Amino acid sequence: MNDTAYRIQQTALKLFTDYGFEGTSLSDIAKEVGIKTPSIYAHYSSKEQLFLRLVEDVIVEEREKWMTHTDSLRTEPTEQLNAKRQLRRLFDFYTDFAGMSIGQAFLKRVMLAPPRGLEERLRQHILQYEEKITDDLHKLLRAVSEETGAPPVDLNRQVAVIYALIDGLLVEVQLYDAKTHRQRVEAVWEWLWNGIMRGD
Questions:
Q1: pTM (predicted TM-score)
Q2: What is the CA radius of gyration of the chain?
Q3: Distances 96 to 21, 44, 186 between C-alpha atoms, Å
Q4: Helix axes 83-95, 47-73, angle to 10 degrees
Q5: pLDDT (tens digit, 9 = 90+) per residue, 68-111?
Q6: Where does the HTH tetR-type domain start and stop, copy by copy (predicted)?
C-alpha cells in the first residue's frame, strides 16, 4: 500500500468512526488527506469499497491483537495460568472499551449501526470473525469444566450468553460514567462465572 492509500484509509477510519458511513463523504476524506476527491478513485472504486476494506482490515487487526494478548499469557507462571484466568482475560479484552484502538471503536460502531445497503456483506465479515472467537470460547469453557469440575455446559448457549453480555456492556458504556460502568462489568463477570460454575 502506498502512502496516499494509507493516508486515505487512516483518515476514512477516523471520520467513519466519528461521523458514521452516512455522515462521511469522499470529499470529506479527500479534504482531510489534502487531495482532490477524484484522486481517491485511483485507490478505491467507491465509498462502499473503502468502508468494507476498512472493516476487513480492522477485523484482522483485532484478531491479531487478541492473539498477541494470548501469547503474552504464556510468559505467566503456570500455576497462575488457569482456565478461569484465561476466560477472564478474554472477557476483559472484549469489554475494555476505554482502551479500544480507533479500529476497535470503528468495528463496534459498525456492529451496532451497520450502514444501510451494506448489512448483509458486513454480517458475513462479522460472522466469520465471530466463528474464531467462538472457537476460543469453546476451548476455554471446556478447560474451565475440566479444571474446576463444574458441570458441563451447553457451549453454544453459554457463548450466546457471553456475546449478549458483552454487547449489552458496549451499549451501556455510552450511558454511564467510567466508575459505574466498571462496577457493571464486574457484576456481569461475577454473574457469568457463577452461572458457569452451576452449569447454567
A1: 0.82
A2: 19
A3: 24, 33, 12
A4: 150
A5: 877 766 666 555 568 888 899 889 988 888 888 899 889 988 98
A6: 2-62
